[in-house]
Amino acid sequence: MVAQHTTVHLVRHGEVFNPDRVLYERIPGFHLSERGFRMAHATGQFLARHAETARPAAVFSSPLDRTLDTAGAICEEIGWDVNSLVTDPRLIEARNEFRGKRIGHGEGALWKNGNWKLVLNLWRPSWGESYKEIAARVQDFVYEKVDEYPGQHVLAVSHESPIWSFRHLLETGHPEHNMLLRKTALASVTSFTFEVGTHNLVSIQYADPAADVL
Fold first, then answer.
1. How far is CA 84 from the centre of its chain?
2. What structural domains and CATH numbers belong to the chain?
3. What pTM was computed for the model?
């Protein structure tokens, strides 16, 4: 009997409109910038050019504004009914104690008022949700969809930390990583193919369709 494979494509959201350089974490109201929408549409066009992703079995998104904007643009490009888009909290951005602070500016800067104590070890985020917790919830989502949609393709829009933590877990056996060395560009697509039932990893593929969007 030939094993069935399911591919889950994890898409990072596009560029966010954030002129004040706030660490927005899970704060509502942070939507894509004009460039971010162009990036999302470019990725949607990339997905539409491939038969598997042009007709996915399902489309999911983190419940945050920037991911919903990205998912909406992708749905438009692949002809998917946006009303059929499903949000899943397991895809949400990592929890971060620096939420709302301006990165590199003012008294809330990462190196002021004792904030530096939270970033002494970039491999273990004492500033928020652990990489282990992040990877575990993404893994739970992905494995569920692998078995729920055997032999098919699923799209899911998420964030950099969840996507990379899960990928790093699969590639190295542990989710801990240096956040400065991630390879998850804005509006990029990281595709994970697994064997149905066993969850044996078949392949990981990466694409950056929006790299040239100005």
1. 19
2. 5-95+124-207 (3.40.50.1240)
3. 0.89
